[in-house]
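Friendly challenge for the regulars: who can give me the structure tokens for this chain first? No prize, just bragging rights.
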Amino acid sequence: MVNLLVLVIVLVGSFIGAFGTLMIKKSTSHYPFLKLFKSSFLWLGFFFYGLSTLFYIFALRKEELSIIYPLVSTTYIWTTLFSVKYLKEEMDLWKWIGLSGIIIGVIFVGLGS
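First reply, four minutes later:
Bragging rights claimed.
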């Protein structure tokens, strides 16, 4: 069974990483490429990406990679939900099916360990 603390750490890390992705997307939407590195959104996104990596490193010290890495895929779920809420992107049936597949896969990994 997956260590509960490690599970929480990975889920928080995936949430933070998804927020970093949102910030990077916001920077690419507001700035031309040559001015992109002056964007505070870009650097904030890099910061959150790095922070999420620290969470993953801690989790990897406590649990097997074959368990942790599939749980990191929850980042896709958070990223999709953020993009719908904050970027007003639309979901269609295929996207919902894909997210459902990720959720089912994470559950299977959790049950199998």
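The helical segments are 4-30, 40-62, 65-72, 74-86, 93-112. The two ends are 5 Å apart (CA to CA). Your move, everyone else.
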